[in-house]
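User: tokens in, sequence out, please.
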């Protein structure tokens, strides 16, 4: 085995983040060439990724980031195999880096675009490869969505303290001044979405096929009732279904005496205008 100076091993360790023995082996294999050794360590990461391609990634970290103006926000999940790795410094560093790549990505959804996005000349695929090499686990970007709003829009975000579930919501106001005042309520609504799991913004946003299915289920449950009251019972069950699943109709998580729609309307009115919820997204790992 060729003799490699400890200082060179330390230098490679700082560059790659790999263990001392892995760095020394790479340097021995490449005759002490640091650049070649670095390439070898990256290949090791790719080999690990290929080897573990079929593994499930049910742990990880949810990442959410806004730009400096607050008019663009992105949310994604970075997934791995075990909770141990999800809490490691190397994985958290990759998740932190992901935030910049999300904002730089040309597409507004889909993990594929992020992987090929470059920041300062470095693709996120390289960040992933190094993280895989350091942790020995499969790591991948799961869900990804990015919102951008005009002056009269505002984005609310919320990430639960466990970093495994969160939400993002887009509000639209009638003026930019009103929108600026809705930042706090937008965050509260994002927290509500995280906790209560609405299916859609309102009843018009739910797939008609789902509504029809719910009506059929309700009618089937009441099939032994007199025909003249079945429709009323079904109507009542559908009102309950919408209240439970439509964001604007749900009792607000911080004050269940009001619906989410009423909370937003009140905040907008206080600011001298009106506002509505345009869309939302909720991600959860595991």
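Assistant: Sequence out:
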């Amino acid at each position: 085995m060729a003799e490699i100076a400890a200082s060179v091993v330390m230098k490679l360790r700082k560059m790659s983040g790999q263990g001392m023995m892995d760095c020394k082996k790479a340097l021995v294999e490449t005759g002490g060439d640091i650049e070649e050794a670095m390439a070898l360590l990256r290949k090791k990461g790719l080999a690990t990724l290929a080897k573990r391609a079929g593994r499930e990634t049910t742990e990880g970290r949810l990442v959410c980031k806004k730009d400096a103006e607050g008019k663009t926000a992105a949310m994604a999940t970075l997934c791995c195999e075990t909770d141990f790795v999800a809490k490691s410094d190397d994985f958290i560093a990759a998740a932190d880096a992901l935030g910049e790549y999300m904002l730089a990505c040309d597409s507004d959804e889909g993990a594929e675009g992020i992987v090929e996005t470059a920041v300062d000349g470095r693709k996120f695929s390289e960040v992933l490869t190094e993280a895989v090499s350091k942790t020995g686990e499969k790591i991948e970007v799961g869900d990804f969505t990015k919102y951008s709003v005009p002056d009269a829009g505002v984005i609310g975000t919320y990430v639960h303290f466990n970093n495994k579930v969160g939400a993002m919501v887009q509000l639209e106001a009638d003026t930019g001044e009103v929108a600026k005042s809705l930042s706090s309520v937008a965050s509260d609504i994002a927290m509500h979405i995280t906790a209560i799991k609405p299916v859609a913004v309102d009843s018009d946003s739910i797939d008609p096929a789902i509504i029809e299915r719910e009506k059929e289920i309700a009618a089937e449950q009441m099939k032994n009732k007199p025909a003249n009251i079945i429709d009323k019972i079904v109507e009542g069950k559908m009102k309950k279904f919408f209240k439970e699943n439509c964001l604007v109709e749900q009792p607000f998580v911080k004050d269940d005496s009001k619906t989410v729609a009423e909370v937003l309307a009140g905040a907008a009115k206080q600011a001298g205008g009106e506002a509505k919820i345009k869309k939302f997204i909720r991600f959860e790992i595991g």
